[in-house]
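ingest -> validate -> predict -> emit
validate: passed (alphabet ok, no gaps, 323 aa)
predict: started
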Amino acid sequence: MHRIQSQLLIGGILLALAGGTWSQGYPARTIRVIVPYPAGGGADFVARIFARSLSESLAQQFVVDNRGGANGNVGSEIAAKSVPDGYTVLVTASTNLTINPSLYRKMPFDVQRDLVTVSVLATQPTILVVHPTLPVDSVKQLVALAKARPGQLNFGSAGAGSSGHLAAELFKMIAGVDIVHVPYKGTGPATADLLGGQIPLMFNNLPPSLPLVKAGKLRALAITGEARSPAAANLPTMAEAGFAGVVMTLWNGMLVPAGTPADIVAKLNAEIIRAGKLPELRDRLAAEGTEAHTTTPLQMTEMMKTETVKWAKVVKAANIAVE
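emit:
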C-alpha cells in the first residue's frame, strides 16, 4: 500500500512538473490557424501576416484554414471544441467575440468559457462615408440634414449586426437622428449601391474605403477610432467632429481552446508581441489601413468584457436579433 501511494505521489509530481514545461518542445508540428471568415477579408489578411512571421520565428508552419459562416460563429465553434494542445488557434474579429453573444439568440459556444485569449493582433476604425451628391461636408452637417429629413436618409451595411450596422446605431443614439438601415449580404454589395447613389451613407471598413475616397468616388466625414488613423490623418475622429462616444474600433485577436497549457499561451503571446514590433510587418498592415496592436492575454480579456457590455446595450436599444 505504501509503495502504491509513493508511486501515485511521484506520478502526481511528475505530471505537475510536466504541466509547466509543455512549451519547451512546442511547436513540434504544423499549427492550424482557423479564420472564421472567407479568404480575402480583414481577419484573413491579418492572420496571414502574423502566420508568416510566427512560422519563421517558431520554425513550424502556421497554416490558415478559412471556415466562414454565421458572422464567424461556425469557425469559432470548431476552434473552441478542438483539442487544447496549442496546435489549433483562432484568429477572429472583435465583432465575433463582443457583438455576436448579444446578437444571436443561441450561440453554439461560450466565448468566455470555451476560449482563452492570447493577444490582440491589429486594430482599425470604421469610417463614415457619403455619396458625393449628398450636400454635407461634415458630421454636424449630416446630423442637421438628417434631423431636417427624419426617416428619409438610408444607410447601408454588410448585414444586420455587422460592425457598420452597430456603428450607425450607436451614432443614431448619440446624435439623436432617425436614419434607416438597409442591410446587404456583404460589404461589397453595400459599397456598390453607395457608389451608385442608391444609398447616401455608410459606416464602412477603413481599408476598402480609402481608395474610393482618394479617387473622389466617396466623401469621408470622420472615423470612429479613439484617435486619428495614420492611414487617414486628415480625417477627424467622431469625437473631434462633435460626437464623443461614437467609437467603433475593430480589432483582430488570437485565441485558443480552453484548457490549452498556460505556458503555450505565454509562448504564443511572446512571439506575437515580438512580431508586432517588426517594421516590415507593421508597414504591411499600415498599407491596408490597419495598425499592429498587441496585448497581454489579460488585456485582451478585459477589452472583450468591456466591449461585450457596450454592444449589448446597443443591440438591445436597436432591437437587433439574428436567429
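The chain has a mean pLDDT of 92.
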